[in-house]
Task: inverse folding
């Protein structure tokens, strides 16, 4: 899609960070907005800010891990605006709070996969048939992460993001075989300065008091995670991520990279591919 003026964007996790960056960019492009987020207060503040800038905004409290919430989101988006042209399945939780594969509790697995993976599954499952039927140029952008392309380090979060990449690639493949103007994309940011390190604020009440991890220590991991939080705090401005995203949509690019230094991640991706292609055991990168 080249022209976004007057079109409709639905953005999950739109009250903060990358989602809010996407919403601001969409508003600047003249789009009408449906903002979906589990945090009511942040949602109201985001909607007020965007409206003050002249945008038309429908804020809807939505827990993307619940199918009925995502169905209601689609229902209300079409009821209000009559069409949707951009769906950003962006809501996510992690990354330091995610827990390692060995030590993470099942409650954490369910929470992480519930939001990061099932949230995207629900978005695609509910919106794609409507977007196909609408038969207008439209985009689904799934927010994964560079963690979705390389192994290790971020534990359950890594697992969830690999799944989002696989889901998005498969969606792209299926859409490409069809006679449709609906396109799929996967957003692959490196560190972005958002509230992600405080994602625990959105842990469901039922598990709020459960420990994040069982008593299994992986040497060096905790120290690395502490540094990783600082890396995120000093990360890219979400506005820049949004700019890269809209440029990629205009250019019809499926893989949306954000960080120029992602070249260094390319070495890690290359290493993983080489291990796969030669059936070597996966390379274990030091915590650094
Ligand atoms: N910040 C980074 O460095 C980084 C890097 C790569 C990918 N990502 C991904 O970007 C996406 C956005 O995260 P962010 O960094 O902007 O963090 P953020 O915490 O600032 O924003 C995430 C938003 O998702 C919302 N959310 C959480 N659980 C939800 C649920 N169940 N239903 C609906 N909304 C929910 C939060 O309330 C919040 O507004 C996530 O998918 C994250 O994994 C972030």
Result:
């Amino acid at each position: 899609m080249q022209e976004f003026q007057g079109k409709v964007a639905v953005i999950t996790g739109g009250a903060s960070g990358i989602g809010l960056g996407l919403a601001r960019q969409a508003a600047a492009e003249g789009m009408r907005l449906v903002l979906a987020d589990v945090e009511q207060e942040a949602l109201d503040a985001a909607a007020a800010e965007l409206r003050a800038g002249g945008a038309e905004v429908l804020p809807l409290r939505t827990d993307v891990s619940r199918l009925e919430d995502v169905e209601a989101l689609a229902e209300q988006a079409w009821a209000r605006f009559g069409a949707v042209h951009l769906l950003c399945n962006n809501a996510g939780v992690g990354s330091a709070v995610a827990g390692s594969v060995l030590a993470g509790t099942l409650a954490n697995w369910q929470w992480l996969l519930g939001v990061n993976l099932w949230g995207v599954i629900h978005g695609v499952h509910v919106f794609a048939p409507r977007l196909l039927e609408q038969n207008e140029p439209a985009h689904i952008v799934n927010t994964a992460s560079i963690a979705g392309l390389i192994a290790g380090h971020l534990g359950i979060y890594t697992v969830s993001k690999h799944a989002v990449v696989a889901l998005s690639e498969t969606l792209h493949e299926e859409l490409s075989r069809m006679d449709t103007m609906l396109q799929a994309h996967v957003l692959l940011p490196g560190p972005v300065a958002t509230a992600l390190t405080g994602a625990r604020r959105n842990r469901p009440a039922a598990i709020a008091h459960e420990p994040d991890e069982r008593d299994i220590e992986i040497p060096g991991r905790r120290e690395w995670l502490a540094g990783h939080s600082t890396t995120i705090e000093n990360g890219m401005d979400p506005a820049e991520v949004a700019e890269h995203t809209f440029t990629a949509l205009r250019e019809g690019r499926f893989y949306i990279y954000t960080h120029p230094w992602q070249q260094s991640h390319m070495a890690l991706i290359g290493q993983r591919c080489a291990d796969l292609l030669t059936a070597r055991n996966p390379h274990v990168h030091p915590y650094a």
